[in-house]
Amino acid sequence: MNSKILVFVAAWLVSNSLFASLNEWGPTGHRTTGKIAESHLKKRVLKKIDKLLDGQSLAFVSTFGDEIKSDKRYNEFYSWHYINMPFDKTYETSKKNPKGDLVTGINKCIEVLKDNNSTKEDKAFYLKMLVHLVGDLHQPMHIGRPEDKGGNTIQVQWFGRGTNLHRVWDSDMIKEWGMSYLELADNAEDLSKAQIKVIEQGTVIDWVNEVHQTTKKVYNSVKVGENLRYQYNYDHFNTARHQLQLAGIRLAKLLNDIFG
């Protein structure tokens, strides 16, 4: 093969791999969160959201936050997808990104949605962003260490294929399980009203600090270069499913408070 073609192919593979590793939860994970959220919304809230989104579902719009990354007009929202936080810090004591982060992004979305003077266009935009960001918040590697960019530079293998810790939790485990977002949502854990009430408690910052505890466990679950296979999926996929369910329930809580 021509050397120039080889260089081009290698560059494409690297860029494509990096892009995939930054697609928080991947489409299936985000859509699962949106679908779970819909099952916890009040009927009157569902109607308001349906009107605002012109009939599009929360699952459908859940990937919007990633889709706009290719448009430079939306570069200001890039830092909203994550928080870089050392193990020994809480959100309150950590150094904040001056460009904003998940907490400031979610709070901005809520502010716009609650403002009676916001246009329908703005409300629809920030609703789509909120759906996406609450999903991101519950992906453990989105509250990762700054030195490895949330696990993006921790190289491992997934069934013999090169990947990184971030992408394993974004999409590799979910893809390996082979279920659609509808199947994942339909098979979410059966929780009592009391259990749901507990999950709904707290603030966005409380949820960040809670997820950060899971983040620490994820970092400790691998060694650099390790070939992760069936055992890793068996040991950790239920944690990923649990995080998706937490995200859906808490997204519904925020939306019920905003539109209820």
TrEMBL record:
Keywords: Disulfide bond, Endonuclease, Glycoprotein, Hydrolase, Metal-binding, Nuclease, Signal. It holds the Pfam family S1-P1_nuclease. One of its GO terms (molecular function) is metal ion binding. Residues 1-20 form the signal peptide. GO terms for biological process: DNA catabolic process. This is S1/P1 Nuclease.
